[in-house]
Design brief:
Elements (H helix, E strand, L loop, with lengths): L11 E2 L7 E2 L17 H5 L11 H19 L7 E2 L2 H11 L7 H19 L22 E2 L2 H7 L15
Parallel strand pairs: 3-4
Antiparallel strand pairs: 1-2
Length: 170
């Protein structure tokens, strides 16, 4: 992105790097953005490179090889503790996909899913705590656990619109 006018921005001095002079007219600024800015003057100075969204098969690979193992490690679990088969990964992505082209929502949802599972497994003997949860687990969960479409349905619910929550929606 070439934003600067070479006639006006040929010399820049930073207070921290006072001995260094920077010619801004020779710089290119590279940005990553989801939408073009609305300002026409700024749009006229943009060179746009469009990158297509991930395909489902690419998202499945990102989920199973990178995102899922990363968040398993965050809750001190291994790939043998919770197993997500490929067909369940596809089901999970179809369930949570909101038309996003990236993986931010996938990461957030996987984090929530694994935290919920970890919480349930570690609190299986405390029946009082399960009265207020948004899902019903019929049988007690324990590791190793293979995820199924039913478990995804039970754990991946959204909060009702009329409830304002300040904590994790369990």
């Amino acid at each position: 992105l070439h934003l600067t006018d070479p006639q006006q921005n040929y010399d820049f001095h930073d207070n921290y790097l006072s001995e260094l002079s920077i010619d801004l007219s020779k710089l290119w600024f590279i940005y990553s953005m989801n939408h073009l800015p609305e300002d026409r003057a700024l749009q006229d100075r943009l060179y746009t490179i469009s990158v297509p969204a991930y395909k489902l098969s690419e998202k499945v690979e990102i989920l199973t090889k990178h995102v899922f193992p990363k968040f398993l490690k965050n809750v001190n679990l291994t790939k043998d503790d919770i197993i997500m088969p490929t067909h369940v990964a596809q089901y999970f992505l179809n369930k949570i996909d909101k038309g996003d082209s990236g993986v931010r929502n996938i990461e957030k949802t996987v984090k929530d899913l694994l935290n919920k599972i970890h919480f349930v497994v570690n609190n299986n003997n405390d029946n009082d705590i399960f009265k207020f949860m948004s899902f019903n687990i019929d049988n007690q969960l324990k590791y190793p656990l293979t995820l199924t479409e039913d478990l995804i349905d039970q754990f991946c619910k959204t909060a009702p619109a009329n409830i304002s929550l300040n904590a994790m929606y369990i």
